[in-house]
Amino acid sequence: MKARISNNNFFKKGAQVLLKFGDSVDLGYAVLSEDKFSLLMGAISNMTENYAKVKVCEYRNCSKCDLSLEPELTEIFAKSRDPEELKYYWIQWHDAAGTPTRKDYDTYVSLNREAAQLNNFSSGAEEWLSDYGDETFEEQIDSTIKQIMPLYEQIHAYVRFKLREKYGNDVVSEKGPIPTHLLGSMWADLWNNIADFTTPYPDSQLLDVTEEMIKQNYNPTRMFQIGDEFFVSLNMTKLPQTFWEKSILEKPNDGRDLICHPGAMYFYKKDDVRIKQCTRVNMEDLFTAHHELGHIQYFLQYQHQPRIYRDSANPGFHEAVGDVIALSVSTPKHLERIGLLKNFKFDENAKINQIYRSALTKLVFLPYAYTIDKYRYGIFRGEIKPEEANCKFWELRSEFSGIEPPVNRSEQDFDAPAKFHVSADTEYLRYVVSYIIQFQFHRSACELAGEYVKGDPEKTLNNCDIYQSAEAGNAIKAMLSMGSSKPWPDAMEVLTGQRKMSTDALLEYFNPLYEWLLKENKRLGAFIGWEKSKKCIST
Description:
The chain is mainly alpha-helical and 539 residues long. Helices cover 53% and strands 4% of the residues. The protein is built from 22 helices and 8 strands. The chain has a two-stranded parallel sheet. A two-stranded parallel sheet has the order 3-6. Helix 7 packs parallel to helix 22 and helix 20 packs antiparallel against helix 21. The longest helix has 31 residues, at 137-167. The radius of gyration is 23 Å and the shape is globular.
């Protein structure tokens, strides 16, 4: 049995810790010589520093070059409907955040492979996969993605049809991949920002409480207070005062180059937990606040464990906890309970709209997340050569997501590190696992709360709110308190009674939308699937 020193960040990877646990020890990057360790840390630091400092010029105003990813570019991708403007910013970001890192990335890959082999793994891919404790886990993930693809293909076909209606055949082809810049985010990982013109029933009331939050003078602190109160209502742990004193909940205005990607931190001292998030007052960031507080709650529940067990049962568990809460928070039922939604008519049309919006964040994310690490496994194993690294990335994005870049790319470009997790050496499979198991957790918690009964149209997974259910909270807490002291199937069994990851709950949650899409795409004559992209030139 191998003990794995947590790799949540590269500082922990470098910790000089000697630990006897079973047959062998994984020292992470600390296994390297001092010179090589410093070289590796320098390469990762260079990439993350480059990511943090990227600024781009305004569209049609090249004299103003101070736009950051957060909040400016993120807001532009969420709101702009000008394909040329979006194309411009997409190119500017990828050229600045990705391409300059290529030399450092090659150094990182070489030393990552050497460290993995010194730790008795064939490559960094196998080292990352070892966190899941099952030699067949990669095959299980491959199977999982195949299971969700029929639903994904229906959503993809519907969205592409709507994009063609809006932008025309010259911008979006009938059968090709969707240009990535049109989907509402820099990486087309989430599509919820284009819900305004793709929603199935636009005449039905749309679930968006952003205006009400502004009207009620919400600020970042209040958003996290609302999240804290949710966990307390489940008989879980109230945030310590030091959390409020030491966290960064909104973007500092003192000129610091802060990476605004949200993050939760635990400093291995009692109750020393913090969050860094450049929080905006909107519904999306309200849900993100609950997600980040899920990490914090996990830290608080397992902090009594011996230090080596103060981690999640597997990396996906940590990501799933807050999202389980967000599945409740995002229901009309809960938003009414906390006074952000009034007189909302939740009829069948509104229900399809809600599940559709959830699919634009949950379901469409899965092929994207799967691609990020499938690509890096190929890099780590040497299956993808340095001279083909960019086009292989887009080949995988086309194959699994039906997405392509807005302009031709080549091996002179390097686009994968324009995503934070790639530049920062952060494993991404955890998000695939999270987006599957959170629905298993959600179903079990809903059963305990009396909010879900299989076959009951009044108590469905997609309208369940576990708020104020101590029964659900106690079961979640029992799972979290185990930390990594037991194999992850043991932890899952505590809450769900199941020992394997399954798409059953996810597919049940989205089934009403799937049935609607089958009929609607047939009515529209929307093409299902996509042709291979030709937007990256390898020579």
